[in-house]
Amino acid sequence: MGEVLGFLVVELYGSESESFDEVYYGQYISFYMNRIFFLDDSGPPFGHMLLALGGYLGGFDGNFLWNRIGAEYTSNVPVWALRLLPALTGALSVPLGYQIALELRFSHCAAMGAALLLLMDNALITQSRLMLLESPLIFFNLLAVLSYLKFFNSQKHSAFSLRWWFWLILTGVACACAVGIKYMGIFTYLLVLGVAAVHAWQLIGDQTLSNVRVFCHLLARAVALLVAPATLYLLFFYVHLALLCRSGPHDQIMSSAFQASLEGGLARITQGQPLEVAFGSQVTLRNVFGKPLPCWLHSHQNTYPMIYENGRGSSHQQQVTCYPFKDVNNWWIIKDPGKHQLVVSNPPRPVRHGDVVQLVHGMTTRLLNTHDVAAPLSPHAQEVSCYVDYNISMPAQNLWRLDIVNRQSDKDTWKTILSAVRFVHLNTSAVLKLSGAHLPDWGFRQLEVVGEKLSPGHHESMAWNVEEHRYGTSQEQRDRELELHTPTQVDVSRNLSFMARFSELQWRMLTLRSEDAEHKYSSTPLEWAMLDTNIVYWLHPRTSAQIHLLGNIVIWASASLATAAYALLFLWYLLRRRRAIHDLPEDVWLRWALAGSLCAGGWALNYLPFFLMEKTLFLYHYLPALAFQLLLVPLVLQHFADHLCRTQLQRNLFSALVIAWYSAACHVSNTLRPLTYGDRSLSSAELLALRWKDSWDILIRKS
Q1: What is the mean pLDDT of the chain?
Q2: Cα 388 → chain centroid
Q3: Lowest mean pLDDT: which of 80-94, 255-269, 471-485, 540-554?
Q4: Distance, CA of 599 to CA of 597 (rounded, Å)
Q5: How far from each other are the two terminal CA atoms of the chain, in whole angstroms?
Q6: pLDDT band for position 384 (50/70/90)?
Q7: How many Å apart are CA 549 and CA 116, to the nearest integer?
Q8: Please, is 664 exposed, middle or buried when counting C-beta atoms within 10 Å of its C-beta (0-12, 13-18, 19+)?
């Protein structure tokens, strides 16, 4: 077995150019090398950090443009180091499968069969040879299951021993690592928690244990399987945020406070700003929601058209929009309605929650206004404008009450960057809101801002925060316009705590949804089980050598049949046991049920949820489920041999069929080898011969 695993690692480095998702993960590795902040909604940062660690140990400086599949790697990219972790975890998954079968009390022969299936499957080999995260995910999934089984099996004879604690804690660590690599890891975590909960329930009913002993057992499990994984998960983000301390291309997705905590970017702009907003302050107001684009409250000289395209009329007041770029027209002055001055007094009078304010547009000096006129694209809401006095019967309605959403008390002051605020219109109770709709050409395709009545619940599109801020000192308009272009002077530090940054980053990762365009190699879960799809990972730029994510069709089809056979047998035994007919001894039945819970349950939990997901899916999403399914195959085969073959002749015949089946799987694995390793060019005839299904996309170069 060791020689085979060594061969798997040695055979890792066939292609020296970018492959499929290596382009995707490579850019994040470069960000780590340069300590540039990024946001990836595909999963937590632990997997990315592991790949980056390989690059760091290999001396990668991050200088490579990850923009094209098939591009040749330059000499400064340590390909072997970047692909080393997936290779090691892919290789180590094989002995883990062997050990899991043994811990389930199946024979060495069945355990060897499970290991061989993990070793021979072409899709698992392909995935482990490239800079991808499915192999580490599968490794930690299997490690979590193995650790729990070893802990469970040591329960009766060595509870609370050093060995017992080691396997229990390692279970929690492995679960945290699986979730930390990809959110898919939570399926295996739930599997382990479910099995552990059943065993804990049985433990509670054990009358041989004292109450104190039972409590200690439950506390140990809670600490190791709940507290430890949560702590480790936080640690992943702590290291991630500590490493990525510089401003990057994904900054604008985050809040102003988060951006200001990064070196460069907004931090450079906001350094030195006053903390408390006062009457007379000059501010830019960023919408907290930031969808569909991060944008700032904006106005300009242009007015709403008298008549819209649909025939509705407008107020013809000055347009107010949300503009997704920095601009001098984003500046507003916070005015006290009872005073005419537009400068900050000495000492400054801070604005507090509940205060009534007016918002004066810095460049045009017109006041933010709303009234009972339908908004241009959202007729159910009110139009927001800067008031122009046309000397008609439409008086100004420009008073707004400040509502600090994240206040600690009703006496809180309005703080730069930190405070999320709502502006509630005094006359109509409408709240200033970003609708998200793009205005037509007359509005320069900027985003619509409306006034809308507040409904129950928290609406981020109604919340705004001050991003740039200065204390205004110029009363004259010409001097004030010059002042709006000058940098701030006073220095105030406002670093976010780790938990605040973690909470925001985690929320953005969970709610951020990029547009899921249809991909050439996307597929549905129904296509995975019978291998009706594949993915071309790499094509040699000059020859027909290519790498495909393509499973061993004999193994995949057999795994599906074994799963169905297990389900039918389990239901049959269960029904007969209900009728007090015990076909299996109690210990064999418990072993059979536990094997199904972990292997068939692991397959179901890692596969069935994809039917409910509205996202672009690929064949590699099935691999964690497949790993569990492959473990089930030899267990079902052994059960057939031990309990369903009645005579020695039947057992011998069945063993011969199993050997023939393994030989066929090995032959298929070797036949598909050129598409797994991409180490040699094939003729058009050879490539056509490997297209066993019409749905497989095998690339054939035209002569």
Answers
A1: 88
A2: 47
A3: 471-485
A4: 6
A5: 43
A6: very high
A7: 19
A8: middle
The DSSP element (H or E) to which 118 belongs, if any, is helix 108-120
Q: Both tokens of residue 532?
A: 């009706």
Neighbour-count burial for 134-167, b at 16+ CB within 10 Å, e otherwise: bbbbbbbbbbbbbbbbbbbebbeeebeeeebeeb
Which among 613, 639, 607, 433 is positioned nearest to 530, based on CA atoms? 607
Q: What are the φ and ψ backbone dihedral angles of 171, each rounded to 5 degrees?
A: -60, -50
Cα–Cα dist 669/317, whole Å: 72
On whether the CB atoms of residues 82 and 51 are closer than 8 A, the answer is yes
What pLDDT shows up at residue 513?
Answer: 66
Q: Which of 388, 402, 297, 288 is nearest to 353 (CA)?
A: 402
Residues 513-535, buried b or exposed e (16+ Cβ, 10 A)? eeeeeeeebbbebebbbebebbb
Residue 6: pLDDT over 50: no
Written out in words, the top-level CATH class of the domain with range 272-487 is mainly beta
> Which residues, in sequence order, are bridge partners of residue 246?
36, 263
413-471 tens-digit pLDDT: 998 888 899 999 999 999 999 998 999 999 999 999 999 987 766 577 899 999 888 88
Residues 6+ apart with CB under 8 A from 101: 110, 111, 113, 114, 115, 631, 634, 635
Residue with tokens 């450079």: 268
Token duo for residue 73: 């790697």
Integer angstrom CA distances of residue 546 from 96, 129, 542, 674: 30, 14, 11, 8
How far is Cα 45 from Cα 61, in angstroms, rounded to an integer?
20
- The pTM score is 0.79
CATH 2.80.10.50 maps onto the chain at 272-487
SS3 298: strand
DSSP type of residue 599: I
DSSP class of residue 307 equals B
Residue 192 parent element (H or E)? helix 185-204
Among residues 38, 53, 46, 107, the alpha carbon closest in space to that of 250 is found at 38
C-alpha 684/C-alpha 702 separation (Å) is 9
Q: In the beta sheet, which residues pair with residue 469? A: 283
| Cβ-proximal residues to 395 (8 Å cutoff; 6+ apart), any chain | none
pLDDT tens digits, one per residue of 303-336? 999 998 888 888 899 999 999 988 999 999 999 9
- Least-confidence region, from 12-26, 224-238, 373-387, 644-658: 12-26
Which amino acid makes up residue 348?
P
Cα R_g (the chain), whole angstroms: 32
DSSP one-letter code for 335: E
